[in-house]
Amino acid sequence: MTDGWNARNAPPPAGQPLPQNASWWSDALADPWRDPYAPAQVVLPPPPPGGGPAPEPVTDPDAPRRSLTPVLLICLITALLAGGLGGTLGFVFAVRGGLADTGGNPLGAPPAEPSAAVNRAPDSLAGVAKKVLPSVVTVRVTGAIGSGFVVSANGYVITNDHVVESGSDNMSVSFSDGTTAKATLVGRDPESDIAVIKVAKSGLTPVAIGNSDAIAVGDPVLAFGSPLALVNTVTAGIVSALDRTIQSGDPGGTTRYYAAIQTDAAVNQGNSGGPLVNAAGQVVGVNSVIRSLGTTETDAGNIGLAFAIPINQAKRLAGDIIDHGKARRTVIGAEVATGTRTVTGARLRSVQPAGPAATAGLKAGDVITKLDNHVLEDSTDLIALVRKYAPGTVVPVEYRRGAKTATASVTLVADSN
């Protein structure tokens, strides 16, 4: 039994109707699309008499097709023109009024005028740099390059002694505006590493001098100078430590002592003699020494350990050089044992009769463990800290004599040499 999907009844002769008892699906046999015996050609009926609407034409699937290349080319050109026009209009609108949201409201702040962009607040880092840079100079001496800063309108400049020690011949300075001038050596103090030169130019802008005793660890600072001959360089950092005692110098040469301001501002060769400046634009130190992992000066580079001479000390020494041609060295009136660290503190090898230490009751063999509340590790600490103070300063000391500890007040004096 079957439902008729595969029935195969022979069709009646042409022109005869289907039998009356033909099944309901038997008309499918007369459908040319379903009759397997229908010819492959489709014959359309003639148009109806009387001019009725013509039947829709049937497209021959085997007829050759028209090329789409012109259409695609027109679309591509149209898209390019539309994109270019849209980009141009977008740029114009963005420049003139900024972007806008769908409601027509501008997005973001209007672009700042160039003149307003360069006008930083005076108390910003950029404002401080703008203020100080005209007073910073690059010092060029035969075989050396360093930095310095103007401290008077008539041309006095403070720098490091080791910048000018190679000789004062052909010394010159250059300013941040690119101008240059000849310079001469006024005087130098090798042990403190301070020197003063005079620039042959008037009407200069001196720096503002701060108070190095008023700074604290963590204060922001800027270092100015010409590291690696890169003039007009400014770096930023903080005060990392105070009264960091350092001894430096080549064998057979001058031994220099520093009770320095330590900073992590980037300082390299060529920064020497440049100013260390606080957030108010006041000089608080003279950049002088760096610590490096390099084994030679050529290999030395910044690793965040730089040291500056406190400006209170540098200003006093520079004033002595300008007024008297040489700096007064502050002493305690005793000679310390060096080259040994068998004890903590500075052991006094000898005491000058009637000198400051002797007057305060100190004797040879005493070990000074504190000076003005600074703990001393060795003799270098004592020498560096004493030279930081001005002659006439009274400082408290703590010392050990045998098993006993005592205190005294010492009035420091200037060396008679």
UniProtKB/TrEMBL annotation:
MF-aspect GO terms: peptidase activity
One Pfam family linked to the record: Trypsin_2
Compositionally biased spans, kind Pro residues: 44-58
Domain of life, per lineage: Bacteria
Keyword flag Transferase: no
PDZ domain sequence ranges: 321-380
Any single GO BP term: proteolysis
Ranges for region Disordered: 1-63
EC number(s) stated in the UniProt entry for this protein: 3.4.21.-
This protein's name: S1C family serine protease
Species this protein is from: Paractinoplanes rhizophilus
